[in-house]
Amino acid sequence: MASFLFKTIFRLLALLPLRTLHGLGALLGRLTYAFSAQYAARTRENLRQANLIPDEAGFRHTLSATIDESGKSIAELAWIWGRPYAEVVGKVQKCAGLEHIAAAQERGKGIIFLTPHLGCFEISALYAAQRVPITVLYRPPKLRWLESVMCAGRERGQAKLAKADVSGVRLLYKALKRGEAIGLLPDQVPSQGEGEWVDFFARPAYTMSLAARLAESSGATVLIAYSERLPQGQGYVIHVEPLALDFTQPVPRQINAALEQVIRACPAQYLWSYNRYKIPRGVNAPNLPPTPIC
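The chain above was modelled as a monomer; its predicted structure follows.
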């Protein structure tokens, strides 16, 4: 019964204009921030420790925008997953760096899209799926009813999904071997044994090693892609940037540094509420310098 009710509400929300959903999302973000002390504290702490905004007035302005944008990222899911595919990708007003995708296709070694929790990361793979077959790694949601809705919304165009397990990783390798594209969330906290501690905005974060292994073994072109959310429900601008990796140096460190650069370009739309610095079960805490005694 609950599953049917949620799916019905989700379908009804998908009928609303994107501008309306973004307005509702901003309200949702405000309410969540007001009533969840843990959510609010994590958002503030992650944004502040990134040290992106030097003055307090600028920090408060960015925090306010972040609260709104985080809510929009939830509300727009109904529209992104529920509207016709052509209508969804048609909301992309521009793709800055489209030539990098074309060049990677010409090279023929496959493409690794690294899409951080920035802007509307859901639409990036759907947009790419117009031009190239893409397999995206995902973790099944805790709400079982949501998985069928999510998979139906994501597996459109030439997009396919692969679960974040051994069989899913095999699918990624096979896709690259065929010269196709794959999509990863490089700032998603991996499970025990699947990552290493690397600084992210000057703080140790358990960082996936899979992207590095895939890039080195396949020789694929690595592209960072994110979708900037435009105001008033106008749509999105996708940004694509190449990432040249030096495999003689730690690759996860290079990836995190590149992610920091794109986040600096659009800090209010990064998902600062995400628990990026958590310690996964079974993973030893990073070695931190001792706190100075004042």
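DSSP finds eleven helices and nine strands in the chain.
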